[in-house]
Amino acid sequence: MSKKKYFIQTFGCQMNEHDSEKISYILEGASYEATDVQEEADFILLNTCLVRENAENKVFGQLGALKALKNKNPELVIAVSGCMMQTGSARETIREKYKHVDIIFGTKNIDDLPYILHEYFQNGETVLAIEDELDLMKNETPVIRKDKHKAYISISYGCDNYCTYCVVPYARGKEISREPERIIEEAKMLAEEGYEEITLLGQNVNSYGKTLDYPISFASLLKELNAIEGYSRIRFMSSHPKDLSNELIEAMGDLDKICEHFHLPVQSGSNDILKKMNRKYTREHYLEMVRKLREKVPNIALTTDIIVGFPGETEEDFDQTLDLVRQVRYDSAFTFLYSPREGTSAAKMENQVPKEVMQDRFKRLVDCMYDIYLEKNQEKIGETVEVLVDSLSKNDPNRISGRTRTNHLVHFPGDESMIGTLQMVKINTVTSFTLEGVRVDS
User: Domains in the chain, please, with CATH?
Assistant: First the structure.
């Protein structure tokens, strides 16, 4: 008898991707096997994101399309999980307008999925499972990792910062740190299994440890993980500038496995807007952190998040963001139009910026940033860089793609056998977003 098949579509951040890996483990324990073809699946899960309105709209679009599949195959089970289900009105919208959805569960109910499935198959009625509090011990579910050469490790869950535009504290709950022993144990297991790179995940890794009975700093945790033999690269995200310590900056320079890449979301270059966002740092403090990072790690790549059109943002505020971008010269960035999120204080603020003004500023911002990316990448022509190969090129089966320690995307000739290996590549061509080159003997 053939196994039933499952299909997961993940929206949003790396934390959601890691949640999907846990869900895969649970489903395969329930005798399902993965498929990349949605039409073949007996169980389809959308693991959702609530941070941007665009991500929410994509989910609704997908659910609408899935209705036809459900009509063709009434035995198909359709489930929705993630941050959209944990808070806000989206959950009720799905219950009222998308009645072909069979299972709805939140970010804190992943470990209950076997019981949720049992309840659905017993009763045949829609199951809703949403908890408000995370049980950290229950959340130690093993995972089926998407890759065999790089892996995520969650070091904390939730967030206590309450930025005025952000729903994460409501969707993910209060910040909780995992015990360092559990993290180290997981890292050692990955090293033994031959993983080359680990990425530590938290909504704010810089504040790791503060909820523990015997608090340790994030920098101290990095030192422990750096000492483990096996893997050669450690990454982490995301970091809040207000909690970036000198100890962490020193660790970035001193620990050989920490990749020379730091994602440090600035959101705005205006002190007035930063205050309205409740970010709890100034542009001057942020620029000082950048100076210290570059002093300690001269070849560091800096990336960021920027929101355009936050309520009350004036042309002067936006100019200050452009000025900060020109000073820092980021290697890349996630740029967003401000999107009001239900339940946040920013959604109720006066002076919402008109969409056409936001779009004009957004274009000017990305035009500025793309020029900087290209200039910085052109400086890499002729360099030989270490690349961890991730996949075959999407456009050319005779080329492969991977990431440098600075997280730059590199394409070069190669084959599938090189996936998961470290290769030395000499860069000869660049765009604003990619590097291209040829493999050389290390």
Answer: 4-129 (3.40.50.12160), 147-259 (3.30.750.210), 266-379 (3.30.750.200), 384-440 (2.40.50.140)
